[in-house]
Amino acid sequence: MEGLIMNYPLTTNTILEYGNSAFHHKKIISHLPNGDRHEYTIRDLYQRCKMLANALTQKLGVTKGDMVGTYAWNHYQHLELYYAIPGTGAICHTINIRLSPQQTEFIINHSEDKVIFVDATLVPLLEKIADKLETVEYYIIINAPVEFSTTLRNTIHYETLLEGHSVIFEWPHIDENDACGMCYTSGTTGLPKGVLYSHRSTYLHAATILSPNAANISNRDIVLLIVPQFHVMAWGYPYMCILSGGRYGIALHTFATRCYHRYAAEGKSYKSKWSAHHLVRRV
Q1: Distance CA 86, CA 14 (A)
Q2: 12-22 vs 199-209: helix crossing angle, rounded to 10
Q3: What does the alpha-carbon distance between residue 260 and residue 36 come to, in Å, rounded to a whole number?
Q4: Residue 216: how many CB atoms within 10 A of its CB?
Q5: Which among 60, 37, 26 has a CA at the least distance from the CA of 223?
Q6: Tens digits of per-residue pLDDT, 164-203?
Q7: Considering just the CA atoms, what is the radius of gyration of the chain in Å?
Q8: Which residues 6+ apart lie within 8 Å of 74 measured at CB?
Q9: HEC states along the chain?
């Protein structure tokens, strides 16, 4: 006889649904490549993820099992991709921007990325190998300035992609053992090797990180993410922070010190814990 209480798959979209239900007012703060500060709420994240899911499936033709690459810095748009891509049943493939052109070319072709979301400042790196990429149908440009131009073909600006799409999207049925994310190794022992993250492993990892014996994160905390979002799914923090309801700061590693001093100045008293990947301030 099977138990029936709380019988639902452990998928990443259920984390987003819970965050929107319980912590819709909590803030997500990004420090963008041009130095600007962007701030919105988990409710805003939720609605834009629904818009992005509609854009992925309706405009870009993304279907279950497709690989969708990200070649981007740390920011709220990258966070939206972390949820919207696997929420449609596709796989979020975070591409390490520090690898050589030869390794990047191999990784994109080997994973068969259908779409790549790329930050405008990183476009020159992809322009060098674009003619060798065999499966990419669209490049979506993030944080592009007004005067931006590129030799990449089939480009769409990120906000243009979202424009006009509904905030209503019915998540498809996803098995918790389906893949939600993909990362490649650094190729230190031969060619880079792909590793698939399942929805279930990602959910359980997020739940484990916030526990007292790990990072001990709650909705009383402010978490400043330092580890790159293009590196091992940012150690699961984009999922853990929404699950915990902690206030979430996303910084480029080059802005980390500046962000720390700004956050520290906002509070009267706090406890902080440093690690290689995050800073936590307890209110």
Answers
A1: 11
A2: 40
A3: 15
A4: 14
A5: 26
A6: 999 999 999 999 999 999 999 987 888 999 999 999 999 9
A7: 18
A8: 30, 225, 228, 229, 234, 250, 251, 252, 253
A9: CCCCCCCCCCCHHHHHHHHHHHCCCCEEEEECCCCCEEEEEHHHHHHHHHHHHHHHHHCCCCCCCCEEEEECCCCHHHHHHHHHHHHCCCEEEECCCCCCHHHHHHHHHHHCEEEEEEEHHHHHHHHCCHHHCCCCCEEEEECCCCCCCCCCCCEEEHHHHHCCCCCCCCCCCCCCCCEEEEEECCCCCCCCCEEEEEHHHHHHHHHHHCCCCCCCCCCCEEEEECCCCCCHHHHHHHHHHHHHCCEEEEECHHHHHHHHHHHHHHCCCCEEEECCCEEEEEC
Amino acid at 160: T
**Amino acid (one-letter) located at 227:** V
Residues 6 or more apart whose Cβ sits within 8 Å of residue 195 = 182, 183, 184, 185
Count of residues making up the chain: 283
Kindly list the domain boundaries of the chain, sorted by start residue: 12-282
81-125 tens-digit pLDDT: 999 999 999 999 999 999 999 999 999 999 999 999 999 999 999
Among 71, 144, 73, residue whose Cα is nearest residue 104: 71
CATH classification code of 12-282: 3.40.50.12780
Alpha-carbon distance of 253 to 276, in angstroms, equals 11
Which residues fall within 8 angstroms of residue 37, CB to CB, at 6 or more apart? 29, 30, 31
pTM: 0.92
Residue 115 tokens, joined: 């779409």
